[in-house]
Amino acid sequence: MGGIWATRIEDYQMAKKSKQAKKSKPKKAKVDPVPKGLRTVTPYLSINGAAAAIDWYKKAFGAKEIVREPTPDGKLMHAQIRIGDSILMMSDVFPGASSQSPDVLGNSSVTLQVYVKNVDKLWQKAVDAGAKITMPLDNVFWGERYGQLTDPFGHHWSLSEQIKMSKAERDEKQKQAMAMFSQCRLHRLNSYESSLFQRNWALGLNPIFP
Question: Would you state the pLDDT for residue 179?
Answer without folding.
Answer: 78
